[in-house]
Every structure is written in C-alpha cells, then in structure tokens.
Amino acid sequence: MAYFLLGALLGTLLAVPFTGTPVQGAGAQWRLAHTHLNLAGFVVMVIFGVAYHILPRFAGKPLHSEAWASAHFWIAALATAWMVIGFIAPAAAVLLWTGSVAQLAGIVLGVVNLWLTIR
C-alpha cells in the first residue's frame, strides 16, 4: 500500500505544474519511477497476494513454502525501491540494473512456489 500511495503522490506531482519542484518538466525517468511504483510496487504485489491466498485453496493443498512467499515479498519490495531510485538518480544506475534482476528473481521464486503448490 505504501508504494501505491507513493506512486499516486508522484503521479499527482507530475500532473500539477508546480514551479520549482524536482518533477517540474519531468523527464521520462520520473514517469518510469511513477509507473514502477504503481505497477511493480502495488499491482504485481496484489496479484501475487491474491494468488498466494486463492491458488492453494483451489488446489486443496497448503502453500508449498511460506518462507519462499515471504522471501519473494521482501525481494520484490526492495527491488522496486532500487529500481525507482535507479530511474530518478542517474548516478545510481546500477540500482536500476540490480533492482531489475532482483525483481525477476522474486517473480521466478513466486511463480515456482505457486507452481509447486498447484501441481
């Protein structure tokens, strides 16, 4: 929910023409940060949260690994933060790359966990 709130705040700042704010006349990096806060930080996390809740019930089995689900959450949360910082701070471009790789690793971990639950 925090990423959703931050994404909405940044989107509002991008839409309102305040003079002197860091996002005034913002380039693509700020729009990408806004998009990733909302999509990776909120939408994808909600989808996985619903999947972690619903799919084991549909399969009639417990989740394969609660620890993997927790690890996936923290990997994805940190990866999203790294990516956003990497987008808005060009000097921290390595965070964009490492955040992207970590995001992919978290998604793979979540998908494998769910797959092993429903197979």
What do these coordinates show?
80% of the residues lie in helices and 0% in strands. The chain has 119 residues and is mainly α. The mean pLDDT is 90.
Which descriptors would you attach to this protein?
mainly alpha, 4 helices
The main sheet comes to: none
Distance between the termini: 31 Å
Into which percentage range does the β-strand content fall?
A: under 5%
Give the helices and strands as they follow along the chain.
HHHH
Strand tally: 0
* Residue share in helix: over 70%
Shape: elongated
What value does the Rg take, in angstroms? 17 Å
* Sheet/helix structural class: mainly alpha
Low-confidence stretches: none
Q: What is the number of helices?
A: 4
Average pLDDT number: 90
Quick gist of this model?
The protein has 119 residues and is mainly alpha-helical. It contains four helices and no strands.
Give the SSE layout.
Elements: H1 2-15, H2 28-59, H3 66-88, H4 93-118
